[in-house]
């Protein structure tokens, strides 16, 4: 089987809900990243054979095949096809898997994997909040209800259950959240994100056009007391908004090719996709699947966790990466070294490609070889991708 190489990786800086990116239509937000991949690689865009784009809330401005609309809003020719996929928070990580599988099989040579989510303009949960008609509209089917009687699937409940199961109290998760902001602040100050971010224009409160180049959600003056003072998400719970991922607008993308693609495009690879895994587990606790997914991915790759230089584990809630660290036996110093979604934001369908973009740049900047990325996903799913920096 052939290899899959990533030759370009880019993302927008995250925008807070109602913040700097509020005036950006999601199709245009995604198009900016596609154009950046073409510009940074210097390729002929007509050679792109498909765009696979993740997006979770595919309604409103993100409906009617958001992937195709992103292509039509970009500088890519109309001949470039596109498809929208939804694996919840892992949507654009799965887009990378599909793109890699396409080029590894030889059915395609050049594919873009990307993701976009405007959580300001298409709020989280909107698809299930649309009014039912004629009694229809509940995503819980009779068959599901029979298999899981009385169960309400909730990521908030799942995150709390993980905290209780693995013994993480409120203080431990608040401390983890504070460190996420501190690492992100340090990364911004050191320019760690500069090479990966695509700049966007926005109009500030004074009506002046500014350039959006930094993740807007980072709280540079965060304190443990401030985070500890926030109300819990669930009554009597251990998690708060301070130890959960931030609502975020953003997009990200990766240009994926095989050996033929490398020769045809005349580009140098940034990284090689080494291993891809996806699993399904308990949909009730829901967010614990990254643990066993990581174990399976490492076993299939013939690696140990000690062989991995850096890990990106999505900070959907602080309990998720903390449980992952504990069960996998990973080194906390290698985890989310430039901060995670608690500080930088979690633009749902874009987060998989966003984390991979950051991981690639961090590996190369630090001279590390292998990187591992994993995401907890609604419904008890998890993707793991292991890459080799080149």
Automatic annotation (TrEMBL):
N-terminal signal peptide: none
InterPro entries: Thiolase, Thiolase-like, Thiolase_C, Thiolase_CS, Thiolase_N
Transferase keyword on record: yes
Occurrences of domain Thiolase N-terminal (ranges): 5-259
The entry's keywords: Acyltransferase, Transferase
Domain Thiolase C-terminal: residue ranges: 268-388
Stored SUPFAM superfamilies: Thiolase-like
CDD domains found in the cross-reference section: thiolase
Pfam families according to UniProt: Thiolase_C, Thiolase_N
Family listed: Belongs to the thiolase-like superfamily. Thiolase family.
PANTHER family: ACETYL-COA C-ACYLTRANSFERASE (PTHR43365:SF1), BLR7806 PROTEIN (PTHR43365)
Protein name in the entry: Acetyl-CoA C-acetyltransferase
The organism's taxonomic lineage, starting at the top: Bacteria, Pseudomonadati, Pseudomonadota, Alphaproteobacteria, Caulobacterales
